[in-house]
Amino acid sequence: MESKQAHKLVQLAREHFRLLAEIKSLAAILETAERLNQAPIKWLDALKLLRTQPEYRNISEQFEPQLAEVERSAEAIELGRLLDSIPPAQFLN
């Protein structure tokens, strides 16, 4: 695999993990609103606050070492091994 292709793949993976953290954060906001039996008020502010929390970063950045290694490696076999080392996503508590 060419370096440019590996870089694009890593960009895609980083965006995937960022969006995964966004989805899980929004789900937490909606679950809280449901428990309170009201529409989420100031949900955008709540999302911005959640983005600063360690749990959000754990989801969005937890695989950064593997992604950096993928970006440095142009070998398809090595790339497959590294991608296989990424476990399923964790949920926010």
Structural notes for this entry:
The chain has 93 residues and is mainly α. The chain has one domain (3-81). It is built from 5 helices and no strands. Helix 4 packs antiparallel against helix 5. It starts with a helix and ends in a 9-residue tail after the last helix. The model has no long low-confidence stretch (mean pLDDT 82).
Q: Count all strands and give the number.
A: 0
Main sheet makeup: none
How far apart the termini lie comes to 38 Å
Helix/strand-derived category reads mainly alpha
The low-confidence runs, each spanning 5 or more residues with pLDDT under 50, are none
Task: Tell me the number of structural domains.
Answer: 1
Annotation keywords:
mainly alpha, 5 helices, 93 residues
Can you summarize this structure?
This protein is mainly α and 93 residues long. 74% of the residues lie in helices and 0% in strands.
